[in-house]
């Protein structure tokens, strides 16, 4: 007997990858201490190698960190890292260098939350095939706090304007933005922080359809080049009401950087405990049954 498969489980919406989260930071040295030494991530060795910007690889995704006044995501970024105890050791190790900043970290049963020197919260999870699929190193979600009563409209926006798979789950808008990747918009009564211009970047399969629908509503904020455009405002497609502001850098799958292989190092390698052949880290689990 042939096995029965739910073929809908393999469907993917129009948004095919969350590639990067961009926040500006004022100090590249402190950023290196936090993102590279503390979290154990990898500075991209090929792109943005000067002192005015830094791209930090997280499996197949990145943080982009241009040098300017600090920006703070109004929520948190979830990443998967393979070794919780090693992470805690690294975070303890950078505490002195990041003293007198907003750097902090705390443990919960589900994750370790590390706060950057400027207040960005990074939730670090252990790999889980059930929860994150094959990811052992990556960026499975960005969670944002939104005003009460907006989640349903945000679901409609992503479905109707971007063609993404989106649903309400536990009162939050959950948007599929790649294999094992989601944007989560969770309603909160907390007063909203002013939007400071941080952004995220996604790749889409249908590039022109969302552009046409955004343009019809006057929502395209930048016509970047032939491969890319941007928008900021999320609106309810039914009423036109503005729901939330978050700049999206939208790229086509013909963009030259699409699916560029990223270098990821094994942060446990040191000159004192070096093991030949173990310099690189892989983003995925080795077995096929995830």
Structure, described:
This protein is an alpha+beta fold and 290 residues long. It has a single domain (12-252), classed as 2,3-Dihydroxybiphenyl 1,2-Dioxygenase, domain 1, CATH 3.10.180.10. Helix content is 16%, strand content 33%. It has five helices and 16 strands. It has helices at 28-38, 84-94, 129-132, 151-162, 208-216, and strands at residues 15-22, 42-43, 55-58, 61-64, 75-80, 104-107, 112-115, 121-125, 138-146, 166-169, 172-178, 181-187, 199-204, 220-225, 228-235, 242-252. It has an eight-stranded mixed beta sheet with strand order 2-3-4-1-13-16-15-14. β11 (172-178) and β12 (181-187) form a beta hairpin. The protein starts with 14 loop residues before the first strand and ends in a 38-residue tail after the last strand. The relative contact order is 0.17. The model has no long low-confidence stretch (mean pLDDT 96).
**What strand line-up does the widest sheet have?**
2-3-4-1-13-16-15-14
How many domain modules?
1
Please summarize the sheet with the most strands. 8 strands, mixed
- As for the CATH topology, it is 2,3-Dihydroxybiphenyl 1,2-Dioxygenase, domain 1
Summed over residues and divided by their number, the pLDDT gives a mean of 96
In terms of quaternary structure, the protein is single chain
Find the count of extended strands (DSSP E, 2+ residues).
16
Rg measurement, Å? 19 Å
Stretches with pLDDT under 50, minimum 5 residues: none
What is the CA–CA distance across the termini? Answer: 22 Å
């Amino acid at each position: 007997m042939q096995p029965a498969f739910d073929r809908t489980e393999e469907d993917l919406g129009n948004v095919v990858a969350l590639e990067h989260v961009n926040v500006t930071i004022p100090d590249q040295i402190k950023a290196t201490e936090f993102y590279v030494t503390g979290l154990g991530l990898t500075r991209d060795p090929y792109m943005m190698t000067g002192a005015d910007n830094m791209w930090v690889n997280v499996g197949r995704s990145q943080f982009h960190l241009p040098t300017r006044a600090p920006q703070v995501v109004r929520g948190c970024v979830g990443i998967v890292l393979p070794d919780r105890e090693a992470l805690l050791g690294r975070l303890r190790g950078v505490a002195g260098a990041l003293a007198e900043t907003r750097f902090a970290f705390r443990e919960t049963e589900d994750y370790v939350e590390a706060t950057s020197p400027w207040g960005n919260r990074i939730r670090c999870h252990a790999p889980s095939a059930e929860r994150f699929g094959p990811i052992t190193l990556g960026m499975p979600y960005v969670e944002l706090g939104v005003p009460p009563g907006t989640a349903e409209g945000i679901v409609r926006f992503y479905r109707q304007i971007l063609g993404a798979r989106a649903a309400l789950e536990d009162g939050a808008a959950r948007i599929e933005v790649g294999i094992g990747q989601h944007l989560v918009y969770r309603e909160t009564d907390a007063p909203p922080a002013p939007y400071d211009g941080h952004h995220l970047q996604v790749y889409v399969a249908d590039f022109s359809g969302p552009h046409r629908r955004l343009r019809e509503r006057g929502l395209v904020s930048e016509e970047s080049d032939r491969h890319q455009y941007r928008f900021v405002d999320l609106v309810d497609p039914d009423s036109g009401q503005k729901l939330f502001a978050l700049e999206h850098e939208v790229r086509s799958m013909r963009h030259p950087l699409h699916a560029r292989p990223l270098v990821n190092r094994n942060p446990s390698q040191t000159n004192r405990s070096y093991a030949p052949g173990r310099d690189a880290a892989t983003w995925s689990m080795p077995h096929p049954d995830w």
